[in-house]
Amino acid sequence: MHTLKIAASIAVLLVLIITAGIYTNHALLSSSKKLEAHIIKIEEASKSEKWASAKEQLDMANALWDNTEGAWSVLIDHIEIDNIKELFVRTEKYIETQNQSMTLAETAALKQCISNIPKKENFNIKNIF
Predict the structure, then answer these.
(1) To the nearest 5 percent, what fractions of the chain are helix, strand and coil?
(2) Domains in the chain and their CATH numbers?
(3) Where does the sequence pass through the membrane (predicted)?
(4) Does residue 41 contact residue 57 with C-beta atoms inside 8 Å?
(5) Helix ranges, 76-99 (H)
């Protein structure tokens, strides 16, 4: 009987861990997709040299990042968060100076950094070992 309780407890813990991993991955993927959508709009606006629109999209992305950052800080390495913050700051400065090539370079780096987070934190065997 005692062995059955231990096995049931282990099974429940395993289910909780797997469920938490799936939820975490879904939350990271969902928020990264929202951020990427704004970054794509920033790229499009800067390609068209619509700097006011690019700044507006950046402000929306920053607001979304402010809401996302708290949850992500619990789930991912803080170095990644610092990198994203730095990319946002540099992107803002390049938009202010209307430097198209550097804005596009920074948005590409920002998009890459954000899209890699769910991949790196994905709950799978490759990431466990």
Answers:
(1) 90, 0, 10
(2) 2-128 (1.20.120.660)
(3) 6-24
(4) yes
(5) 78-96
Q: Other C-beta atoms within 10 Å of 73: how many?
A: 12
What is the pTM for the complete model shown?
A: 0.82
More confident residue, 102 or 117: 102
Vertex 67: Cα angle to 124 and 48 (nearest 5): 95
Whole-number Å distance between alpha carbons of 101 and 96: 13
pLDDT of 56 higher than 80: yes
Place of tokens 């950094």: 113
Residue with tokens 């990644």: 80
Residue with tokens 């800067």: 46
Q: Could you tell me the two tokens for 1?
A: 């009987």
Q: Could you give the CA distance from residue 1 to residue 92 in angstroms, rounded to a whole number?
A: 63
CB of 45 closer than 8 Å to CB of 53: yes
User: Please, are residues 101 and 46 in contact by the beta-carbon 8 Å criterion?
Assistant: no
